[in-house]
Amino acid sequence: MRHGFIKVAAVTPKIRVADPVYNAGEICRLMAQAGDRGAKLIVFPELSLTGYTCGDLFLQPRLLDEAKRQLLRVAAASAGRDALVMAGLPLEREGKVYNAAAVIQDGRVLGIVPKANIPAYGEFYEGRQFAAGNRQTVPFRLGDREVPFGTDQLFVCRNVPGFVVGCEICEDLWVAQSPGTSHALQGATVLVNLSASNETVGKDEYRELLVRSASARLLSGYVYASAGEGESTQDLVFGGHNLIAENGVILAQGKRFWCGAVYADLDIQRLLQERRRMGTFGGGEGGQAYVKTSFCLKFGETQLERKFSCTPFVPAQEEKRQERCEEILSIQAYGLKKRLEHTGCQTAVAGLSGGLDSTLALLVTVRAFDLMNLDRKGILAVTMPCFGTTDRTYGNACRMAEIVGADLLEIDLRDAVVRHFSDIGQNPDDHDVTYENSQARERTQVLMDLANQRNGLVIGTGDMSELALGWATYNGDHMSMYGVNAGVPKTLVRHLVRYYADTCGDRELKEVLEDVLDTPVSPELLPPQEGKTAQKTEELVGPYELHDFFLYYMLRWGFPPDKICRVAKQAFRGIYGEETILKWLKVFYRRFFSQQFKRSCLPDGPKIGTVALSPRGDLRMPSDACPDIWLASLETPDGNGGCG
CB–CB of 531/390 below 8 Å? Predict the structure, then answer.
């Protein structure tokens, strides 16, 4: 449960209809199995103690009395089990029978939640046997104790901040105003649904959509446990379609027509962070009527089974990745199109180095010009060889400009930079930061002045990963008149160029783009060694795939450093060891904080995804904030670094 991870289980027992004794035994057995697996929340289906398909047998006192006895048996079996357990049964109260969920923990029943919405359509005739549950919570005698009975209840874990559980039953999810909505507005971060949803063709897709959308709309976890094949009788077949979702994403689901358990690790901290970030969530009316029952779990380490993609900005599925690339290129191109139209410019000036970022900027500019039906000769592609330029990148820049039909201009910067060195007293043999940045600023000066000459716009090439790390020369490549790549992380830049290569339909362009993709990432500011790039960015600041991972989980989900390190260890297992991850994570935090002053004065650029660094939109961060408390969380008590 450290870092907010809670293992949950949706469990479908193979029951016998109208046999509470047998069913209670199965529930106890599976409860023990799920507890041994580490589940802290265990959910069984609707009416699982008796079976859902008992029909008019629900009106028989013998069945009702036995179900209540077996509930107490299950509760007793939960003693010492470190989990909150929910199981369904019919209960009689004041002459009415209710379809209810019993909430059980450590040997006792904490509360009874009745089903609020009783279906009476199609194959459902529950109104014949069951009454709709009341919102107002009233006492209910169960054995020698009274427990709260009503729909408006929450179950609050005292020692796991934010772990608050609300319950609804089957049809409650399918109605326009679900109890889960009210639960979430009153603080529930995890919703459970005890269900007996029979199978018809296509119903599984709709069921999954409901669970996904409920978890997304309510910024919650959602655990859906459905009745399985033991229920199948007469005209109905049940498939045990169990689902676990978090904020719109299905974390786990069981195959249909199967009995058993599915597990997932919900991230409560992540849900709380999303609610804080949204700012518009919460504040539901009627909270004063809610009964909140507290319980306590042993605080321990959740053995993570949850998977984390090592490229969170890049969809794993090929089809989805291609759709995403097309969408991003369109966002970039239409953003630039609007700026060109608004300013009346018909010339775009782009520095073209033969590297990934400038290549993407050129391709986006080409697309924008095509959208505006402008002659591509209005794109001025400027290659500016200097001390670090290699034949490979120079050749690719020239070929690319020629193939796309841009106007190519070559300006050798060596003499200008040497003159500048002389003016400021810089030793040309001293390859320090002044040596490098002088070249970057000279490039930018040339581009800006060319844009002035031609009434054009300078197209920025720097990507979001470089902005996060401050890997840009202030008022050099840091500056432009519109930064088309500002919202694109480096790991995604590569896929965008690859997508363009695969879909452009031009063999020559595809060849040059593939060579660009094979070229090491470098600013090419230091002299080549034996004709090859001497300066490889990732050897200096660290692997971009790590930094993009860190950036995503820091900004999008608010993970603290030790939690980022923990999930990075899982995501990059077999690729990077803990020592390497920790080293570059510290570099990331130091650079991210120290370089905010560059991001505070960024040029405009299109927002692409949920993570963005614009000071006018997503990131309002002081330029002089201190990173010490973040870095301190990566230190263990003995002073050595650790990933938690």
Answer: yes
Domain count, the chain: 2
pLDDT digits over 533-563, tens only?
Answer: 656 777 889 999 999 999 999 999 999 999 9
CA distance 332 to 311: 21
Longest dimension (CA), the chain: 101
What is the rounded CA–CA span in Å between residue 357 and residue 521? 9
For residues 240 and 128, the answer to whether their CB atoms sit within 8 Å is no
Query: What residues act catalytically?
Result: 46, 115, 170
CA distance 332 to 348: 14
Domain end point (choices 280, 295, 310): 295
C-alpha 270/C-alpha 267 separation (Å) is: 5
- Same domain for 175 and 70, yes or no, is yes
CA torsion through residues 349, 352, 357, 359, sign: positive
Domain annotation covers residue 641 = no
Show the domain range for 532: 318-632
- State whether 221 and 354 are in the same domain: no
Mean pLDDT of 498-526: 90
Of 261, 295, 329, the residue that ends a domain is 295
- pLDDT tens by residue, 527-539: 877 666 656 777 8
Same domain, 235 and 338: no
Q: Are 223 and 10 in contact (CB under 8 A)?
A: yes
Does the pLDDT value for residue 398 go beyond 70? yes
Contact status, residue 496 vs residue 329, Cβ threshold 8 Å: yes
Give CA separation, 607 vs 247, 357, 358, 552, 612, in Å: 22, 16, 18, 15, 6
What was the pLDDT predicted at 530?
65
**How many C-beta atoms lie closer than 10 Å to residue 62's C-beta?**
10
Could you read off the pLDDT of 319-352 as tens digits, one per residue? 999 999 999 999 999 999 999 999 999 999 999 9
What does the angle CA 248 – CA 6 – CA 164 come to, to the nearest 5 degrees? 75
Considering the entire predicted model, what is its pTM? 0.90
> Are residue 525 and residue 589 in the same domain, yes or no?
yes
Mean pLDDT across the chain: 93
Structure-token match 């830049």, residue found: 493
pLDDT for the residue 540: 86
